[in-house]
Amino acid sequence: MEIKELYEKNYINKEVEVNGWIRNNRKQAHFGFIDLYDGTCFKTIQIVYDDKLSNFNDIRKLLVGSSIQVEGLIVESSGKQAFELKANKITLLGKSDETYPIQPKRHTKEFLREVAYLRPRTALFQAIFRIRSVASMAIHTYFQENNYVYFHAPIITANDCEGAGEMFRVTTLDRNNTKAKDSDDFFGKVTGLTVSGQLEAETFATAFSKCYTFGPTFRAENSNTKIHASEFWMIEPEVAFCDLDGIMDIEEECLKFIVKYVLDKCPDEIEFLNKFVEKGLKEKLEKLVNSNFVRITHKEVIDILKKADIKWDFLPEYGEDIAKEHEKYITEYFNCPVFIKDWPKDIKAFYMKQNEDGETVRAVDLEVPGVGELIGGSQREEDYEKLVQRMKELNMNQEELNWYINLRKYGSVVHSGFGIGFERLLIYLTGVDNIRDVIPYPRTPNNCEF
Looking at the whole model, is its pTM more than 0.90? Predict the structure, then answer.
């Protein structure tokens, strides 16, 4: 029987059998208590055993990390827990020894990264990775219930969506062969791991009206920060017949749905994280669900920042990006999530819809209190001539993206989309401040280990 089931139904005075791992074994002279978990829920169950068991002395010696099977009677507890399991029989399934690194004490997250293959057994990472699982389900539930088609974008691609040149190369060429040409490679050209599935998703949006991708993306960016990783997951919906205002509506609705879904499905995990990781986490998440998001232009943001009586590390300027300190100020200024729209075109991607002023594009970033930018999106340029002209201005290779440009020739429509970095969303949902701790096996510069 799963431990989760014991908490969902009343099994008082009933015989049960459970399997799990020992998180703690507190032994006395004639009795002992084992905290047992099986991963089916965040809670453990307390096993009570005494010297009436034939293997009592062997049970007392069982170490943390050992797996056991327990048969016994569920009884009301005189302690903090609602019930406990009085053991009639305990069988060792898998022994753990003194070298087991996850002992019943506080461990730093830095230490646990060194034993990433074992850290899911700790209470902290049981909470984090269950929330990751539940948030994944929330994402699929939202889009499926709203009639989106789930599109699997290619992982190997010749397309650098953002034009940032930060792709990992995929090659079968011998690097010692100086005569090898790109045309000799496996795909006959230079290919890499995808940085985004957006451009390919646009092809499906122009067939199904609404689609989304949710999968791994890769950036060969040598950044050792708390929010960067070389491999991470992205949620990227694409919607036809939808302008910038429409996509902001969807972003707000989608984010609120995910946060509420996690609050509803993971109350024990949120409570734990609220107590041990981020004080006020639950209140923060509930506030977002009940907030009305502000919408403001990039120019209006700069106006506000310039008027602020603050000595900035980075001076806010029209036509330029905003810094972390600016994001923080703006969300505190409005005391809620803020959509910043109509960005300078020179700092945004080629595919974004150009505004009539010739200086800005219909791009939008969602800034969330405590995190900063959480979602980035835009209305895409549906005008063939304008898209081609913008690509010429940026000296882009039109031939390689001919298929993308042709979408504007064959029944082009107004369409928009956005991207959510899944791990950045998890940082917000859990209060854990390092991306390395919300990914099972983080891939960062000089780190590709278990």
Answer: yes
